Predict the structure.
Amino acid sequence: MKKLLLLLLITTASFSQTIYRGNINENGMPIPGATICVLGTSRCTQSDFDGNYVIEATSGEQLQISMVGMKNKIIRVGNSNLTKNDGRVVQIISSDYLEKLKKPSDSVKKSKSSGYFDLNLLPNLERQEIVKIIRQPDGFYKTKNKYQLHKAAFEINQEYIVSTPFRLPRYQQFFAQGRSLNGELTYQSPETNEIFSWGPNVNTLQYSQNSSQYYPQGDIVNRFSATAAPLTRYNPNNFYQDGEESKTVFNAQIESPKGNYLKVNFAYKTGNIVVPDTRNNEISTSLKYFRNTSENSKIEGSLSFNNFENNFSNANFGMNKVFFANSVTPVHFDNKWASALENGQQRSYAATENNPYFLIHNNLDTNKSKTYSFNFNHVYSKNKISNTFNTVFQSSEIKNTNGQSFYAAGITEPNFNKRTEDFKSASVSDIYKYTFSYRAFIESKVDFRFQKRALARHYFSGYSTINNFPYQSDIQSIMDISQQRFEVLTNINGSYIFRDIFSYYDELVLKASSNLNYSSTVKSNFLPGYFVSAELNRLFNDKLSIKIGHGHTENEPLLQNNNLNFNSLFYQVNEFKQLQNNHELITQKNAVATTEDMSSIDLNFRLNYRWNLSFNYYHKKIENLYVPVLFSNTAEWSPEVNYKQSGIEFGVDRNIYSGKSFTYGFNLNFTYYRNKVTALENSQTRIPFAGFADVNKNYIVGQPLGVIVGSSYLRDANQNMIIDADGFPIKNPEPQILGDPNPDFVVGFSNTVRYKRFTFDFVFDWSQGGKIWNGTQQTLNYYGKSDLTGEQRYVANYIFDGVTAAGAVNAKAVSFYDVNLPVEQNRWARYGIDGVAEDAIEDATYLRLSTISLSYSKDFRDYNDICSFKISLFVNNAFVIAKSKSAFGNNSMFSSIETNGLDYFNSPMMRSFGTSLTIKF
């Protein structure tokens, strides 16, 4: 019978506890993976690869030693077996130790002699990962650990988010539909098509006994009874619903003993936005297979599919029009009660205005998309050589509809657009890398690409009857454009390291990259580029690194330009209800490449391995930037703008540890940049690229990117406002630069606190400076719906600071709303619905607690299996402090970054509350 001997060894301990150390072997051969426990306690350990183990014990306690296929052995701990408190090693010289080497009675014995021990058992015993023991015909035991069997892993994630709007416009709740007539504030009913809420106080009105389609509770009349109930008031902010989003993700993976695996992913997301009756649905799934084909090569392939559907995409500015219609409705008119009259026409407080629910029920802005993709990857690596071969194919189809239905206010005629875009791309690439040594490598890449875009757009207009809407119109036209591009991208890059330049272990890393790309659609057919850098690392005892780089790239525009928001540039602000997305930007053949030259300096400094400071300076120059150029009834996608930009970024990372269960880390990032347009092609003075025809963001030579241009007050040479004979400032007929939307600087501050299994994260961001045009507030002022007009309409004897046309100091006192004058002459209505854009320019500064999250995670381990879960609670946009009361600089007007800095009935800012649960097993 083979014997398992217990060899007791005594070593030192640097602490005062009693420490027992031992070794388990058989005839001098160490046995790893044995379990050693102090009887009657939960103190257990395992022997390592050399059979050694360490465990806390006191004199008189018993140790139980157990092993699969062996009898348990119990030994008693005595004083001579323990490390003494003075830290000295006491040599064992008693005869007990010598007897243990001889006497089988002190050995751990097998229960039976049923086979032969094979050394292939040892690695499994070391890790205690045996899941099966097999006795072979020759008598030898064979084991299987968990790495020798197929294993399955699953992951389920469920996320739920509720969003509520905040920082909404504030409205007056006291004044009814109407205006001043014959020196009195007069209520005017919906039949009069009065758009203003400059009428009398609603407390002077009541419902009559005669109901109508506009007021089912009774038409509104002047109060004739002091005991009559007041009018019901409706807060426009109650129109919005809370947004909801639910997302479920399931992952499953089967892995073979060789590391090959098959992974399946499925995700489903559904939800709604702040507009009633909206719904978004998205399904995505993928199948991924990985295989080690040999010791030096592996392959990977994947198939994926995504399907997305949105029943209110804002493809034709419909969402902004809904917000507009809701906001300007008088306080006493209930839009929700009904959106249509008995004759099918729109039920609204005025025929020239829309009911938001009518726009929702007749919404035509939809979006559907499907995407299929396939990817295959082969990697070979041996010694100094590696090669990666990759092929990708993708096909996507996007279907959009938009238009304006019958009886929608503000449009000249009903219209409908059906847009279908098919996009296919395929690429085959190969990357070869040769490593000379740890100091140097060279790498080459070649990539063949083919793209095809087919755009079909069908325009319908000129309907003889509503029954023909939307597909049977009298006037139809089709845009049918097909584009193809073939590219060959080549690149060579390499790196070399010089050691011990200034001190021991420092290094100088030189990197260079060069590419020459061919394209069938670029004018010159070739696009060269390069990048070089020098990096000094490990300076001052590995505390400082410095990197200097410079690069040049040339790129042509994408075939597809899905951003259609430039269409609003064809319309004045007062034409907002007519807006259509009916122009496309098409990349022409023989396109001119956009070039970028960029230089940068990076510094990184580490202090005590817990502080990390980084600094980056960059300067870049862009030429031939593509922008929309508008003509009388067309738009072109053209390379018209050159500009330059310089900036710095400074970052600080800090990790603080306190014991084993608490850590704290933060990152502080500071960003500052300045840019300026250096040239415009074709002698243009300015190019608007976002906004409206009369208020827009622009490229202007010598000015920062995106300066806001619009109407202002007329001023003299000393910048004094010129006041007219009525006592009000004069509107300048020429547009002026009103502000720069770019911030002075931006600061981000993220924090992570971990305590045991809890993790708490919170992130601040601070944007200082910059300007925003709050056209929403200006239009609400015009209609008499804003709280500002409710508070100030009785202001009298006000003198505007300025001079008369003759140059004298203005002394003419005015009333903001004089009932003896037409309503169009009051303070807010006299300049039209667009007002004077200068009045709507506000400071875009804000401080935001953008994210708060708290998560708890736990692992459950049962020898070979691991189950874990993580639950998180989070809040986005927890609070915002801003100079503007309602507008927000990072909130875009038409869901594109180009319209940041412009607010005209934008989607409200949302505060989100969410929870996420992830389970893995």
